[in-house]
């Protein structure tokens, strides 16, 4: 890949991160991961993305954080702390190459995301199914899974969004809860990444360059959030979760070329 192509991919990824955080609670953030990973090695990519995500988190929390559902985010963050810590230990123990574990998690989150979107689609079509219990234990379990996957690949958006969509939160509460959850969890991840030595001056310089594009993405995301009605908004979240989950399954099972 040419340096110019890499710069373009990183700029587009920064724009997507801003739109995702400020407009869609971070659920579209997974779309930025393959862009950065196409330009950089996977271990470098996750480290470069995190500082950009932290700044986008701060902006999104200022915009939407007051609508957060504390009753749901607190147990989810407790679980996320466990998941992030476990992934940090695994990354250190496997010398930054947890290929087998990453594959298992990729399949699991892809399948869960697609399945939960299918369930919601069935309900929207008039079908009746038992609801997932809206309890702290369920939130904690979703947090553990999100912490594990997000630490390895910044890819927990579909999983947490699918869980919260089960509670049928309105657009403001859903977005506020997502941005607070991911904002705090990304701070946990920064500690884990620092502990295993993923940050370096060259990577941080790339992060700083990506931040130049971030404000445009944040402004566009907020504009979309304020103008997209609730039902189309939920459709976007469902579609993003289904596409991202399906993409993860495809990548896991596609034959090597």
From TrEMBL:
<feature type="transmembrane region" description="Helical">
    <location>
        <begin position="30"/>
        <end position="55"/>
    </location>
</feature>
<feature type="transmembrane region" description="Helical">
    <location>
        <begin position="233"/>
        <end position="253"/>
    </location>
</feature>
<feature type="transmembrane region" description="Helical">
    <location>
        <begin position="76"/>
        <end position="95"/>
    </location>
</feature>
<dbReference type="InterPro" id="IPR052017">
    <property type="entry name" value="TSUP"/>
</dbReference>
<dbReference type="GO" id="GO:0005886">
    <property type="term" value="C:plasma membrane"/>
</dbReference>
<feature type="transmembrane region" description="Helical">
    <location>
        <begin position="202"/>
        <end position="224"/>
    </location>
</feature>
<feature type="transmembrane region" description="Helical">
    <location>
        <begin position="173"/>
        <end position="196"/>
    </location>
</feature>
<keyword id="KW-0812">Transmembrane</keyword>
<keyword id="KW-1133">Transmembrane helix</keyword>
<dbReference type="Pfam" id="PF01925">
    <property type="entry name" value="TauE"/>
</dbReference>
<keyword id="KW-1003">Cell membrane</keyword>
<keyword id="KW-0472">Membrane</keyword>
<comment type="similarity">
    <text>Belongs to the 4-toluene sulfonate uptake permease (TSUP) (TC 2.A.102) family.</text>
</comment>
<keyword id="KW-0813">Transport</keyword>
<protein>
    <recommendedName>
        <fullName>Probable membrane transporter protein</fullName>
    </recommendedName>
</protein>
<dbReference type="InterPro" id="IPR002781">
    <property type="entry name" value="TM_pro_TauE-like"/>
</dbReference>
<feature type="transmembrane region" description="Helical">
    <location>
        <begin position="101"/>
        <end position="122"/>
    </location>
</feature>
């Amino acid at each position: 890949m040419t340096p110019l192509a890499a710069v373009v991919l990183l700029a587009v990824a920064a724009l997507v991160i801003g739109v995702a955080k400020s407009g869609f609670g971070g659920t579209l953030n997974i779309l930025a991961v393959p862009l950065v990973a196409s330009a950089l090695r996977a271990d470098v990519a996750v480290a470069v993305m995190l500082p950009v995500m932290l700044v986008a988190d701060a902006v999104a929390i200022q915009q939407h954080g007051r609508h957060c559902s504390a009753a749901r985010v607190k147990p989810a963050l407790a679980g996320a702390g466990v998941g992030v810590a476990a992934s940090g230990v695994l990354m250190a123990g496997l010398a930054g190459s947890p290929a087998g574990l990453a594959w298992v998690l990729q399949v699991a989150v892809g399948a869960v995301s697609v399945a939960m979107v299918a369930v919601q689609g069935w309900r929207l079509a008039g079908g009746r199914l038992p609801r997932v219990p809206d309890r702290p234990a369920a939130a904690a379990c979703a947090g553990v899974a999100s912490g594990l996957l997000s630490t390895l690949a910044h890819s927990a958006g579909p999983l947490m969004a699918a869980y919260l969509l089960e509670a049928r939160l309105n657009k403001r509460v859903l977005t506020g809860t997502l941005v607070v959850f991911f904002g705090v969890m990304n701070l946990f991840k920064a500690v884990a990444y620092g502990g295993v030595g993923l940050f370096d001056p060259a990577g941080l310089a790339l992060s700083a360059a990506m931040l130049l594009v971030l404000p445009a993405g944040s402004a566009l995301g907020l504009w979309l959030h304020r103008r997209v009605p609730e039902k189309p908004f939920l459709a976007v979240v469902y579609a993003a979760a289904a596409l991202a989950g399906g993409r993860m399954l495809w990548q896991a099972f596609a034959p090597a070329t």
